[in-house]
Description:
The protein is α/β, with parallel strands linked by helices. The chain contains 14 helices and 18 strands. The model has no long low-confidence stretch (mean pLDDT 94).
Amino acid sequence: METFTIGVLREEKSPPDKRVPLTPLTCSELKRKYPHLKILVQPSKIRCYSDDEYTAFGIDLQEDLSGCDVLMGVKEVPADQLIPGKKYFFFSHTIKKQAHNKKLMHALIEKKIQMVDYETLTDKNHNRIIGFGRYAGVVGAYNGILGYGLKYDLFRLKPANLCRDKAEMEEELKRARLPNIKIVLTGGGRVANGVIETLSALRIRKITPEEFLMGSYREPVYCQLNPRDYVERPNDHNFDLNDFYAHPEHFVSRFAPFTKTADLYISTHYWDPRAPKMFTREDMQARDFHISVIADVTCDIDGSVPSTIRSSTITQPFYGYNIVTEKEDLPFNKDTVCVMAVDNLPCELPRDASDDFGKDLSERVLPHVFGEDPDRLIERASICVEGKLTAGYEYLSDYAY
C-alpha cells in the first residue's frame, strides 16, 4: 500500500495556542494501526507536548510539510502560510462569515485548498462528531467555582491553566468548601457533560428543576435545564423541541424563577440570535435577582446572557458587570455580578483537551480519510475544493469570492 503522510502543523496564530490535534501517544498508536501511515510534526517551542515527547514515541520532526497528503492543526493557519492544492483540517472560523477571517477564506479559494473544518464534521443526523467542548465545560465549571470562592473570600484555588492536567485540577478542587449554594446549568451535550464532570468531582448533588425552585438544602446542589425548562410559547405550555429549533423567535424565556433562586449560573446552551435572552439587563436590576456569579461558557457577546459584554482571558478570567450602571466594573464588588467569559477554555488544560480530541480524531474521522468514506463524511465537511465552494457552503459566496 502507498505511504500516506499526515503533517501536524505548528500553531502560528497569536496569541499562541498550546493544543495539538494529535498527541505523541495517539500518533504512535495510529502508526501501529496503519503501517502505511507516516506522521511528520513541525517543531514547536510553545505546544503543550514538547518536540522531545514526539521523538520519544518515534515521530519524526520536519519543518517542511509540503510533501504531506493531509495537514492538520488546531486554530486558523495564517493565509500566507497555506500551501496551494493541499487538504487542510483545522478550525477555520469562516462558516458564520466571520469578518476577521475573510482574508483566510479568500486564500483558501485562491490556493485551491480542500478545507475540512472540524466544526463541519457531522454524522448523518447533523450532529457534530468532534470538538473541544467537553473541556470547555470542565474548565468553565471550575472557573465558576473559583470565582465564587474569590467573590465571597471562601477559598482560593490554583487557576486551571497553572495545573499540569485535569488530575491536578481535581485535586485542587478538593480544597473548595462550598456553602449550601444553588447552581443552575443550561444546556446539554458535550459542554454540559464537561460541567457535570467537574460538579461530580465536588460531589454536588443533582436535583430536578422543580426541587431547585421549591426546596432549601443544607448542601450545595445543582439542576440542569433543557430548552423546555427555560423557554415556552406565550400562553402555550405544550413544548415542541423541533418547533423551538425551527422558530425560536416564537418563544419567550421562562428562566426568571431561577434568577431568584440560583447563586451561580453556568451557561452552556446553544443560542440562536432569534431566540429570547435568558433574562434582560432590567431583570438584573430587580431586588430579587439572586445570581451573583455567572460562568458563561458559551461566551456569546451580548447574547443570551446580557452581562457578557466582552470575552475575558485565561490570565484575567473575571470581570464585574455593574447592575446599576450596566457597565463593566471590578469583579468582586458588592454591586457587581462576577462574570467569567473566557472564550478559549480548553486551552487551560491543553494536554488533556488534546488527548481527548486526538482520540476522537483517530477513531471517528481518520478512517474516513485513509480508506473508504461511504457516509461522505469528509466530502460533507469540505467547505471548498479546487477553488470553489462546495454545495453545502455556497451561502458563503459573497464572503469567499
